[in-house]
Predict the structure.
Amino acid sequence: VNRMTKLFVVPWIARSTLQDPDSRTRWGLTALPRSSISPAPLTSTGTPWIPTGLLSDAVYVKHAWQLPWNTKLLRRLEGATQTPDAFPQWPNPELAVTPTARTIAVPYDFRQPNATSAAWLDRVITAWADDDEEVFVLAHSMGGLVASYWFAALEGYKRCKRLVTVATPFRGAPKALTWLNRVPLPGFSARPTQTLRTWPSLYELLPRYPMIEQAHTPTWLRPSEIPQQHELYPGFLQAAKAGYQFHLDLDAAWEALPPEHKSKLICVMGSRRETPSSARLSEAGLTCISAPPPGVSPDQADGDGTVPLTSAKPWNVPDVPYQAVPRGRHLPIWHSHETVSWAEGAKVALAEAIHGPSTARDTLAVDLEIPDETQANQPFNIVVSVPLDAQIRDYAAAVNILDNGRTTGPPLPLRRVDTHQFATTITLATPGVHTIQAVVAHHAVPHRDEADIAVLPAEEEAT
């Protein structure tokens, strides 16, 4: 690794562990069972809490699942860089617990405005990177908005060599409307709408473009333009307008950047999954749908299941390089090969800094499709796809169930279902988070893909 290179990793919403000023854990492994059932302690009163680290890999508590991928990503990066990772200490980020670290994870109070979190990121980078060190930033989902604001509005571009965003909703995500309206974020059992509605950051995830079709009119609206009489709940419009202003400020900052700095951005995004892209507003309420709004072509209407493809890069940086991950889901894409080696085909400078000279890799793209969750002893389908131009008759396919990276039994064979797909149906009996590994072999050369599935006890419903 280049001794003058440091990588800062910024996670997505709800993945940072938090303590209040009295050093009580409010969001973390010890608080998850309590917070997932009664999230009121997470209500934002405007005072930032202390970020203490990242939630670890797959944790199962009652009704809460899949709080993973932060440490899995860091392990992969640590293996690639051969250096330990580190967590800056609050409120003095210059206190280096691991001074030799080259990968620095940056937790933050995800409830606060993204501009507030960007200022914290600026403090961390200033404390951890010397003036002569190259800075690279890798950020996921809302963390990408934090990093983008730091880069453009707080002049992080002056020292940042490369900013890589993964599944970042630069133009917002309609799914945020459902979280505010009725559907919980992953990790909660009840519907903590009152708590989520106090988070300024969540309103900054709302779409910045007209995507709400108003019944009986040809007008399409932004969330901040919903008529007063149809306001989703008291205070929504004021908060939504503040969220829209954040995007306007971010847009203006990017517009003002010289072209040579805009070219430092690269976007990794998921594609080819049905993704909410618009909404309908009627007397019955607001309903998110996957149909694209005006101005979005049908081939741009899919996404990663959460962020539409059309939102995953800034609208005012049209030439930004990007890598779309077919069938990539919003959460697993964070620890995917594409994220760790981001846009290796584009030969981004950071890939060389982290991995050194590129080496040959499998050329067959294997796509594993499983549900996010199921019930114990409930059958579910596994579908494995290879590219259309692959001659499937020359391949054999199976799946493994993994526990801590080791197989738990013999491979389960897959049957061919068409010219480029294999499939099977299985059940899992043990509650928890399990890893499914697909292996497609061609002349004894294996090609793999993995995904996690949460298995709920048989008496509980999958959400």
